[in-house]
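User: Fold this one for me? It's Alpha-galactosidase.
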Amino acid sequence: MGSSQTDGWAFRLKVPKHPNGRGAERTPTPTVAGGDGDESVELLPKNGPTAKPITGGDDSTHLKEVGYVAELSPHGTSVTAATPARRPLDPTSAGAGGWSYSSASSTSQWNVTSSKLMSVTYRPAHEALPSYTNRTMKRDVWNRSFGTCLSKACGKKRRFARTLAGAPEPIHRVRIDYTVEDILHVESIVARNPSNNADEKPKFGSRADEIESEANDLKGEASPFVDQENEFDLPPVEQIDNLDTKVDGSAIVRMHGPVLTFAVPCQWPGEKRLAVHNCPPLLWKVEHPPNPNIAIDSFCVMNGSLQLHQREATASSSYDIDTPTNVYVNGYQSWSFCGSVLRGEPQPKSAMPNFLSAAFNRGGMVLSADGSKANMNSDYWNDGVRVDSSDLSDHEDDSDDELTETAAHYKSDMFACISSNGQDKSQCEDNRIQLDEEGGPALVVGFLAQREQYGVAIMDKQLRRFGLYACHQGVVARKPISTDWAFCQIVDSHCYDEEAMVYYVHAVGDHNDARPLEKGLTTGWCSWYHYYADISHDSLAKNAHILSKSRSSIGFNVCLIDDGYMTSWGDWTSLKPGKFVKDGGMRVLADAIRSKGMKPGVWLAPFACDKGSDLARQHPDWIIRNDAGRIANSANCGKFFYGLDATNPAVRKHVYDTIRRAVRDWGFDVLKLDFLYASCLEGNGKYDPSMSRAEAMHLGLRTIRAAAGCETFIIGCGCPIGSAVGFADGMRVSCDTGPTFVPEFPLPHWDNGTLPALKGMLRNTMTRAVVGHRWWHNDPDCLLLGETTSLTDDEVVSAASIIALTGGMLLLSDDMEKVSEKRLSVAKRVFPLTGVTAVPLDLHSTANVMPSILRLWCSERTAKTAAESKDVDFTNNSHSSSPEKVLREQASRLTFEVGYSPGDIVDPYSRERSCFSVAPGLGSWTLVSISNWLDETATVSVSFSALVSHSIEDFTATGAPRSASRTTDTSSGLGECGDNGFHVFSFWKSEYVWIPHGTFLDGSPMMTTLRPHATEILHIKPVDYMRPQYIGSDLHFSCGFEVKTFEWTDESVRVTLKNDYKKRGSVYLFLPERVGLDRASVYVCGRSSRFETVARPSIGHAANQGRVIRIRVEVVANGEEDDGKVSIKW
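Assistant: Here's what I get for Alpha-galactosidase.
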């Protein structure tokens, strides 16, 4: 199981000798499926290895006696005799086993080794049942457990950890005779490619069929939620012992123990069968047989270590080992912290005490063998408890250092990314932003879904040891239990120049059948941040009227009624008296909004209820309780409330009726569903203790979607991130914004949790941009413009810039009657939305968790046709319109395809997700935003390689820009046609600068000074002195999206601006000196005008001179033929 220095990836599975000497005689027949699903290659043949071993001779009996290692790689399969080498995979220990996964690149190598195949932590089933549970049920489970689980069960509560790796010794009188051969099922599965066949179903399973079936069931008159008395009846133990289970879907086999399935999505070598990537992801899952005697707390599916190896230096170069420097931590739900943390630094935490905030942030919990709750960082979770050291020990790296005692330092929900920035932070000079594309390899681990359990990844302080846990938290195993697919991928140095997690994100979207963008983009208004709960029919109608009048400038397509219309949460039909029409009040509002040309939306918290609500008084049995039988803590959002149990059929019936009423009776097209985590609060005081929290959330979301229908736009908020993939159309990805940049006194300003503030909202909007338009349409929360807030002009501009570049939903939330024209112009200049998502270039290398630079490509050279690039309007509400048709056609492709093909060198302008199409004639350029998140004015330094638009010829064989590579000269790769320098246009300042060619050839950075919390958007375009060029405008942040056509001849230049919305500002053009502007005539909207010269770039020879001019324009959107047309004749 040692590392390999061979080229390409390799998966090695350790099969130790059996303590009885039986060897591998009961091994199932694991296969490696071919690329087309019709061929297979035996990896671990039945009855032991038969392939000719690399070592150990031809005698397969010898391999059974000593154990063996089976290997899968692009070169085929092989079987090797195990050798007593090094820990933690010591074949001499009975029952030992494990696996390794390695990659190889031209510079350095990261290998992953897991010292365990799996372990399970469980307890007697009766211990998982709260004291309030029905006595009959408790007595039944107690009788089944007594004498078979623990003779001392009446004493202190205990959990027991058991490594299922072959040792047959019983654990506290629960005898488990499983060996490695009993639990392994190894195969390769080829992932589908939707771009080849859009109708093909995903091979890992999809929720689409489940939703369709659920919707059909719910259409009937009979309620599908009838509470059956015997729903929790457990089968007799003797039946459990004789259960047969389908393992591979084709044959019934006797399940002696858990099934561990590995999958390597690859194409097998052969004719037209090549590996799709130099290191494809490794997938695996655990299926555990039913046993009502036990309650499972967690599976440890990976007890891993990261091993670093160095390639041999060549005569021309030498390389350092890429040490992990950062870890990307994903929070549990919408509001939880998400970002990259520098190695050794504490994980950012909530500043609020646990009783006020724990439920907001607590996803999967790892329970150790002594019964304590094991958490990663006592400072972060305030629990002061640690992971079972048996799951994070036996550390071994290349220097033979052994980590004998480990308290996990970091915890990430669903997935994590360990990365290397290529150098220590102490080596960074002149405060330069370190770019991800200049760093080393990355390791992505996690789960493809959160349907079965809430999975977590834990890491040590040095990012060399990590564990992957599937947390069930006391689920009584009355039915077979399966984990979600686990994921592990090593991304080699420089094989990505944008996002290290891109393959994982696409795999999750594919697995969960996500369909973002199918319903178009959302621009609208929400009532919350000005009125909060003090809303009325009159205030809502007033703003809807103002919005309709403003649609000539900003195409509002949604008006959302937020919290405050009902008397109590849970009593959704009880409207506040005197503020809303008594009979049919919500229907009246919805119809009024729709009459203004917008979709009506409404806020609901379907799985929450107020403590004093009628619902709570009438149905106390619907409320989730903790393990002690008390009402479960839901955290405090300004008040405490109750969570409703999604495992209870009566609760699901209530939620179904609530959603159905809002859509069908009230007439709302958009639902903002908040506090969804309340359906799966921590605690086993629920209707069905055999259902995990993740299963409860999954069931609740299925109920919601079935009630709402496919056409309703659902915005998830306060929802576990992994659970919402495939269900939410829009998804809140940050905490609430607020009227201040950081939480205001008396709230702690140092909070990194869920307190409302602009800083936390911006942080998560950038750090979760990678999932936008892949899993759903990101909702960054509202853009606040009103002077009633404490936000500065710079902070408002920063918020608008980040929302615009990340392509998220654009919602305003002020009293529109009181917003000044100055602040409203900020929103006008980022509208309309472009439908593309910028890439944070320092996401995995930032030292302060706040990315500072975002990048978009802009080009006329994309896969879209010229007609589409002219006519696409992402704000049109009509489903029959061509813009919506274009979005639907792009949805499946943009969801599943990576920004560039693995292993291929692809022009950045072909990356549709991060490159938007502009009119022919505008050329190609780079758009970047640079931010200063400090509380003081600062000079920010950025490598010029991040700012220029690379042509295909400027990329190295690894797919990275030459200027970003540590092995090439920084003088190359300065962009397409950059010999004449670059036009640099600052959008918010409306300033132009010409940068001569060679200015940054010595590797010196470009520097810009920014005020506190300020952001500037820069446009960098190579100079072409042979023809007129469009530099940009102050009309739209993209400096190109506002242009419909750009044409020129030897005698004129014609610019046609899109005239769908009113715009006023200036356009900037570069014209060669030979044009003769002294005799030029300028026409704007058919009327004579003039220009101003703002710069005269000195490109070199007199014949190469030119000037940049500014022309004032106004688009009135009146439908006239000349509206938006600008022409210059000479």
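One thing worth pointing out: Residues 857-863+910-957+977-1129 form one domain.
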